[in-house]
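thought: user wants a sequence for this fold. calling inverse folding tool.
action: design(structure=
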């Protein structure tokens, strides 16, 4: 087989495998290099997202939510469910089956589209050459007209809490507990910490979340964030802001966490400690010194708006470049790059990337938040529709939260949409589509929504922007 390709993709996560499939669909001879290895020595496709990230965490979030519902919320429906128990190994087995089905599906898609899968660790050399070292240490060289780097990210480790098998774990380890711990500590009240903390809190663990910042979810619209904090505390999550971890040690089967807050030195004893402080790009050993590809001070690969590196024909996408570390962002960049290589003029709209936190209630947003608009001096109107006014939300016993729409005061163009509540991750797609087409709040208000649905709350919030809401009291306009 020839070692020359039109496109070589490095990494088979949601950015890399999508880029490889799209490139092959466009008639380009394509190979995808992946170093992840299964227990039986075979290549594992799908990257962090499918194997130890998005997919397994959502499987556990769903299982734990159903358990909590059965244990605490069935009674309101007139359903008696006494002695509800959780079988953790069975729950984990279901998660593994989902992961196996999806990762195997990527392999089938590679075959269907003619993508060559190469198993090994890649290094980018000068002249768009790629060196691959397999598990036996054998080195093979490949040439490509174009290289797409999609090596993804890894959990950040912090010196005060080094990973200690069985006790101090990262996000991957938190998906593999074999029983429900009595007490769980979480470092970091971001997406990772809140989602994983929620799983084990629902299953019965006492969960304490330590967050160094003094603002909860500082990147999220603060009205939404404050509502989220209220709901999480109501559920029993002990979230402690301004709490900086100083050190940890394991004694007598417990993790002792030393941290400092506004009152001084504190200590927390837990059975398991999850470190969820973020992720870092995987670039170690990836680039030869003469590759010509440059990194920024944080280890991200420098690219332009079209994901082109400083070397013509070499691109980088996903978690390894600037922007939010989101699977869907990496996938869209992969499509863009593949199509641009094929001569098309595709672009990614970085202004409208949806963000989601899959807790219960869910949080989802796109565009700008109220704090950003104020800081930029942009005049805006606000429309809010609480789910408490939604008949469908009442029927599903999920009335916490709201839909919030921000629109330009003069043009009425939608600038941002922020949701906390049931199915927020699905509802936000309506906002993304509307914003992609430059819609005004009036456009959404004039659109017919089915009744009764949760999506009516998006409609009602759009009407509320101009004071035309029907099912909620209209707020007085800001002066």
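)
observation: tool returned 479 residues.
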């Amino acid at each position: 087989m020839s070692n020359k390709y039109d496109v070589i993709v490095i990494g088979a996560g949601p950015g890399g495998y999508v880029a490889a499939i799209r490139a092959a669909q466009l008639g380009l001879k394509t190979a995808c290099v992946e170093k992840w290895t299964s227990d039986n020595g075979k290549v594992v496709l799908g990257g962090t997202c499918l194997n130890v990230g998005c997919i397994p965490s959502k499987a556990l979030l769903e299982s734990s939510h159903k358990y909590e519902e059965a244990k605490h919320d069935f009674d309101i429906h007139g359903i008696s469910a006494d002695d509800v128990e959780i079988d953790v190994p069975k729950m984990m087995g279901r998660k593994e089956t989902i992961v196996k089905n999806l990762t195997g599906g990527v392999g089938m898609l590679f075959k269907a589209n003619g993508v060559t899968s190469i198993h090994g660790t890649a290094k980018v050399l000068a002249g768009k050459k790629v060196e691959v070292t397999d598990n036996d240490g054998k080195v093979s060289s490949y040439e490509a007209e174009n290289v797409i780097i999609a090596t993804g990210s890894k959990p950040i480790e912090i010196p005060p809490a080094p990973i200690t098998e069985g006790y101090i774990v990262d996000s991957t380890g938190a998906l593999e507990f074999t029983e429900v711990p009595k007490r769980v500590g979480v470092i970091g009240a971001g997406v990772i910490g809140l989602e994983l903390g929620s799983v084990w809190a629902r299953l019965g663990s006492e969960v304490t979340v330590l967050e160094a910042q003094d603002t909860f979810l500082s990147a999220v619209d603060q009205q939404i964030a404050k509502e989220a904090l209220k709901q999480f505390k109501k559920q029993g999550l002990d979230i402690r802001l301004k709490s900086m971890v100083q050190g940890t040690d394991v004694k007598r089967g417990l993790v002792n966490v030393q941290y400092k807050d506004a009152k001084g030195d504190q200590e927390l004893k837990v059975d398991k400690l999850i470190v969820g402080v973020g992720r870092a790009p995987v670039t170690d050993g990836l680039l030869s010194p003469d590759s010509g590809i440059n990194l920024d001070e944080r280890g991200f690969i420098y690219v332009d708006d079209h994901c082109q590196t400083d070397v013509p024909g070499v691109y980088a996408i996903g978690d390894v470049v600037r922007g939010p570390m989101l699977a869907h962002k990496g996938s869209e960049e992969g499509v863009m790059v593949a199509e641009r290589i094929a001569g098309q003029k595709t672009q990614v709209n970085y202004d409208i990337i949806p963000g989601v936190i899959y807790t219960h209630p869910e949080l989802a947003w796109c565009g700008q938040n109220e704090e950003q608009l104020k800081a930029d001096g942009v005049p805006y109107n606000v429309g809010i529709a609480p789910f408490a006014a939604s008949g469908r939300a009442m029927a599903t016993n999920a009335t916490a939260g709201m839909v919030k729409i921000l629109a330009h005061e003069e043009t009425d163009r939608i600038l941002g949409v922020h949701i906390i509540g049931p199915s927020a991750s699905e509802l936000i797609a309506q906002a993304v589509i509307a914003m992609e087409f430059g819609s005004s709040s009036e456009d959404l208000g004039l659109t017919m929504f089915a009744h009764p649905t949760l999506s009516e709350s998006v409609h009602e919030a759009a009407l509320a922007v101009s004071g035309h809401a029907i099912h909620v009291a209209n707020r007085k306009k800001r002066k």
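thought: summarizing for user.
answer: Here is the designed sequence. The first strand starts at residue 4 and ends at 10.
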